[in-house]
Amino acid sequence: MSKISISKKTAWSLILKINSKISCKNNLVNINEDIRGHKINITYNKINDHIENSNLSDDHEISDLLKIFLPIVCSSKKTQFIAHIAQSLDGFIATNSGESKYISSKENLEHIHRLRAISDIIIVGANTFHEDKPKLTTRLVEGENPKIYVFDPKRILKSNQISNNIKIISDKDVMRNKFSKYKTIYIEGGGKTISYFMEKNILDRIHVCLCPVILGGGRSSFIQNKNISINNLKSYDPKHYNMGNDVLFDLKV
Ligand SMILES: NC(=O)c1ccc[n+]([C@@H]2O[C@H](COP(=O)([O-])OP(=O)(O)OC[C@H]3O[C@@H](n4cnc5c(N)ncnc54)[C@H](OP(=O)(O)O)[C@@H]3O)[C@@H](O)[C@H]2O)c1
């Protein structure tokens, strides 16, 4: 098979197309797509999460993009929950006063926008929504903005703080599985929200971006309410990818 070179933009358009159009029912996914005049052929094995064959020439950036996103867009799950959090080397996502813009690199920020673009909905915690006033758009990459849900079990947000297109959800809504009609649900933090979904065993995948800064204190990324024993810790087998100077750990939960 003769090899072709494609740009990151073309690779991303391919991922969006797989996400919206290509059926991934079989364990071997055959991707044959014409994107911007490039005829791209990839055989992706979902079981061992491996690209068996491809006509793409070696390019580290393209290969990482495919390795990160093929398992997500080709998932057999009817509904999948993916979380992302960027944390300092010492495990904090923001200072005590709530400043977090931006702990991670511009490359990771672009990655966050990609996660938004392949998701049907995005869930963000009420503290984050209140303090950061995030736009939660896909402005850095191709792709549509997801619907926005704010996790606000304590009802701290006032109705005039929320526009009509944003929905408020509580812990009860989460447990009632209000989201079964969606394919991909992306939880963008903060730490309390991600920890809630993790404790309830709802998450399928977590992206932890480790950033080379030390905060020495602040808001935690993961919060455990129960006592844990070192001998019973769950051990992960993460894949990792460079995001500028940061390292992204991709954990299948
Ligand atoms: N670095 C990153 O990737 C990143 C991403 C997003 C946000 N952030 C930062 O994270 C900070 C906010 O995060 P956060 O962890 O404080 O809050 P959060 O996840 O944004 O908000 C969670 C909300 O749910 C409430 N809650 C009630 N019961 C809960 C339960 N059982 N489990 C979980 N939440 C429950 C919390 O109330 P209580 O607070 O009263 O418990 C809070 O109102 C901000 O400073 C923001 O800048 C960083």
Labels describing this entry:
253 residues; alpha/beta; Dihydrofolate Reductase, subunit A; 2 domains; eight-stranded mixed β-sheet; three-stranded antiparallel β-sheet; 6 helices; 24% helix; binds NADP nicotinamide-adenine-dinucleotide phosphate
Tell me what you see in this structure:
This protein has 253 residues and is α/β, with parallel strands linked by helices. It is built from 6 helices and 13 strands. Helix 4 links the parallel strand 6 and strand 7 (147-151). The mean pLDDT is 94. The structure holds NADP nicotinamide-adenine-dinucleotide phosphate. NADP nicotinamide-adenine-dinucleotide phosphate binds at residues 85-86, 93-94, 98, 100, 103, 125-128, 131-132, 151-154, 156, 171, 188-193, 196, 219.
